[in-house]
Amino acid sequence: MARTRQQGDTATRILDVAEKLVQRRGYNGFSYADVATELKVTTASLHYHFATKAALGQALVGRYSARFLDALAAIDLRLPEASARLDAYSDLYGAVLKEKRLCLCGMLAAEYQTLPKPMRQAVVEFFDGNERWLAQALELGREQGTLRFSGSAEEAARMIIAGLEGAMLVARPYGDVGRFETAASQLIASLTDKSPAG
Predict the structure, then answer these.
(1) What's the whole-model pTM score?
(2) Which residue, among 139, 134, 148, has the nearest Cα to 197 in the 3D structure?
(3) At what angle do helices 82-98 and 117-144 cross, to 10 degrees?
(4) Burial (0-12, 13-18, 19+ Cβ within 10 Å), 125
(5) Distance (Å, rounded) from C-alpha 185 to C-alpha 144?
(6) Quick one: which of 175, 187, 188, 198 has the fewest CB in 10 Å?
(7) What number of other Cβ atoms are within 10 A of residue 141's Cβ?
(8) Angle at 171 between CA 165 and CA 172, to 5 degrees
(9) CA separation for the pair 35, 44 (Å, rounded)
(10) Cα separation values, 157 from 23, 99, 134, Å
(11) 111-155 pLDDT per residue, tens
């Protein structure tokens, strides 16, 4: 039992380090040697847990997506108002940027053509899951009379994702989270109906 727990802990530590490296350098910008050096283990130890870099990459995206979707479910439970849900969604991105990282799947999207095929599919599924959640929040906002947007909720959802991912990317070379926060707040404000109900 202790051995199984230790193996699980090692795999988690590998994923933690690899995630940080991908979010800062990209998938093609790190190697098993980088992870091994940070963890002070051999590369053979990494291969024991993740036979290939592609397997590690797929595990990274799977874990990140599950964590992100859990955060979205928590937002739904905590916040009944759609506009507050959009603010909380934007805050998820801001929190990552404050750690001097980018969204894992946003970073991977930039390298999409060079990724192993299973990773490509996992990245698309991440964005699809985000689009579905946002579309539901946007439809709820229309029903509540607190959000306004032209076109379909799906199109507006895609705009939000593109806007936030792009804002992260542009803020990064300036090292200025405020740039992201300003762009994100203006994006969300553009969807908020400030006119009185009725």
Answers:
(1) 0.90
(2) 148
(3) 140
(4) middle
(5) 20
(6) 198
(7) 24
(8) 90
(9) 11
(10) 23, 25, 5
(11) 999 999 999 999 999 999 999 999 999 999 999 999 999 999 999
